[in-house]
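Meet my pick.
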Amino acid sequence: VITITSPSPGLHNSNSLNIAASASEPVTNWQYSINGNPPVSFTPPQLVSFPQGAITLTVSATDVLGLPGSSRVQFTVDSVAPVVTPQTTLYPGSQTAAKNTDTVTLQATVTDATSGVASVTVDASALGCGILTMTSGSPYQVQCPLFGARDGTHSLTVTATDVAGNPATAS
């Protein structure tokens, strides 16, 4: 019986993972295959670089009597951060700037091809709003009432994290 102890099923935010396995009988030959590709000989544990996306890992072994055995695990690799693009601030009505009593809508487009977007925040401290969580949509948005904002143009930082835990920022 072959048992894969690593990587585990689920989501991994690194593409470099150890393949660790054990067998109930002494083994003369170990092999692994990623997504049905040709098998590669190895000695567990071994650090392997996996591609992004859904993975089916098959570990095979041959015991001293020449009998084969195998085990399979499925997981997803997402080591790429989301793409964050801040969008134009929406001002009240047809205004092209805001007054200190206005409420503006801050926007950002965020995409993540593998695991999806978990959270998006914007640091609107320069506008007097602190760090705000943006609501999902296309684009992500949040409103900020401008009470106590400093005069002038401000650069705000948007931070997004994907489901795998990879962060990205843009201003």
Q: What stands out?
A: The chain has a mean pLDDT of 94. The longest strand covers residues 53-63. The chain has no helices and 15 strands.
